[in-house]
């Protein structure tokens, strides 16, 4: 469902993107080319700051927002998901937040008030908040990172982890094509 927020902002969805009919996109959202937005995802840009303004939620080209993901921002803050990034099932990205290009965020992870650099991997059930993850970092499953100081013990992404992330992005790009092809069959 595509709908306006109370300010009257309507999501802008590129014609090559696929948004599952059960997903909800509300407000000041920009969905770029070849994006896959899966079933029951909720992307909501509707809270304003003290001046009545808000930054958009931007989903970069070739990214995928999987089943049950929630993306929202508080007090007018924005969220940017870079190109070729994967936000896996049931994750929460709560702005203000910036996710770089080619980032993988694993199942049930939470990102809040942070930035995640290009090529980084946040594995399943992790929490990342109040910090700036440099490019190419690997955050293991069930990690809880709450400051830049806690990043010191985190190892760099290995090629096999990056390969998995790239395969997820590629598989979801193929889903965009398939679902767009059959969109009139349901």
From TrEMBL:
Task: Identify the InterPro entries for this entry.
Answer: CA_gamma_LbH, Gamma-CA, Hexapep, Trimer_LpxA-like_sf
**Mind telling me which SUPFAM superfamilies this protein's record contains?**
Trimeric LpxA-like enzymes
Cross-referenced Pfam families: Hexapep (PF00132)
Q: Which Gene3D superfamilies match?
A: Hexapeptide repeat proteins
Q: Which CDD domains match?
A: LbH_gamma_CA (cd00710)
Name the domain of life: Bacteria
User: What's the family?
Assistant: Belongs to the gamma-class carbonic anhydrase family.
Protein name, as recorded: Carbonate dehydratase
Which species is listed as the source? Thiobacillus denitrificans
């Amino acid at each position: 469902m595509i709908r306006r927020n109370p300010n009257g902002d309507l999501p802008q969805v590129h014609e090559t993107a696929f948004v599952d009919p059960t997903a909800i996109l509300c407000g000041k959202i920009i969905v770029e080319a070849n994006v896959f937005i899966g079933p029951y995802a909720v992307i909501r840009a509707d809270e304003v700051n003290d001046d009545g303004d808000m930054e958009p939620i931007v989903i970069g080209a070739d990214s995928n927002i999987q089943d049950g993901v929630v993306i929202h921002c508080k007090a007018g803050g924005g969220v940017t998901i870079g190109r070729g990034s994967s936000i896996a099932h049931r994750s929460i990205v709560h702005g203000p937040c910036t996710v770089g290009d080619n980032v993988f965020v694993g199942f049930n992870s939470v990102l809040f008030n942070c930035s995640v650099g290009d090529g980084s991997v946040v594995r399943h059930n992790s929490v990342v908040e109040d910090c700036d993850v440099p490019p190419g970092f690997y955050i293991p499953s069930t990690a809880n990172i709450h400051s830049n100081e806690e990043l010191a013990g985190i190892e760099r992404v290995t090629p096999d982890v990056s390969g998995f992330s790239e395969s997820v992005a590629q598989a979801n790009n193929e889903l965009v094509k398939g679902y767009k092809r059959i969109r009139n069959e349901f």
